[in-house]
Amino acid sequence: MKSLNLIDVQEFVNTYIVRFHQDKIQSLGKLKLKTLLRRKNPYLFRAKNITLAQDLVQSLLDAHISSSEEELFGQFLEQLALFIAGKTCDGVKSSRVGVDLEFVDNDVYHLVQIKSGPNWGNSTQQKRQEENFRVAVVDVQTQVESHIIIQPILGICYGRTRTSALRGYFKVVGQNFWYLISNNEHLYTDIIEPIGYKARQHTEEFHRQKARIINLLVEEIVSDFCDNGLINWEKIVQFNSGNFDFPKFLNQQPNK
Q1: Are 132 and 99 in contact (CB under 8 A)?
Q2: pLDDT digits over 180-209, tens only?
């Protein structure tokens, strides 16, 4: 495995972290109030005793931002891992289902699926990942010499879980994952500083845009979902979940 130039990593991170922040702001600009109301649980927000339209919009927006940020930053970490593996071991982005990265090191052919954090997937998705690895291994076996060991790996970018063997693949987490693709046990901390590149500047711009969106959505929710200045929760629930048509199906036989 080739040594990693941390200046290259810093330059890559500086470029892509800017894109991450830009994508966050663009995501805000595309938001529609009714989309938020349809996606989120109105009963949960009612249970919080929200009475101000601004508080409701803030809660809806924060819930959306939290899930959106996790997805966007997960994509960023995957790109960072691919970049590092490309520099250290000629790793390439995989076209196989359920595999993100492929590289060979010391006669071991690594098939890596990258996840940003440890809390991913339900049991069905995890079984599907196991099957994806099985299919990928069989395919690679037809393409490499017999002495090459094929090792599927679930690589997780952060977390303290120890390395473990699971149903035909290794689960490699946090510091161990970054070491796997770089042979540098300190890489997991080396990348934290560049990730904060111009963080304050980006955060200020994001909050400015967020305030603008909140103000616009508050106007809309007051107009469409408030009566005499009070939130009409019944109207919100009807908009979110009103779809009454079940009785007409009661006397029908299910498809066999």
Answers
A1: yes
A2: 999 999 999 999 888 887 778 888 888 898
CA 56 from centre of chain: 25
- Distance from C-alpha of 256 to C-alpha of 253, rounded to nearest angstrom: 8
Does residue 254 sit within a domain? no
Q: Which two tokens stand for residue 80?
A: 């960072």
Other beta carbons within 10 Å of 154: 24
**Residue 22 placed within a domain:** yes
d(CA 1, CA 41): 49
Task: Assess contact for 177 and 160: CB atoms under 8 A.
Answer: no
Residue 210 maps to a domain: yes
Q: Stretch 149-165: mean pLDDT, rounded?
A: 95
Q: Domain of 29?
A: 6-241
Domain count, the chain: 1
26 neighbors 20 (Cβ within 8 angstroms): no
pLDDT over 80 (residue 150) = yes
CA-based max dimension of the chain? 76
Cβ count near 197 (within 10 Å):
16
Task: Flag whether the pTM goes above 0.85.
Answer: no
43-66 pLDDT tens trace: 999 999 999 999 999 999 988 888
Q: Would residue 193 count as lying in a domain?
A: yes
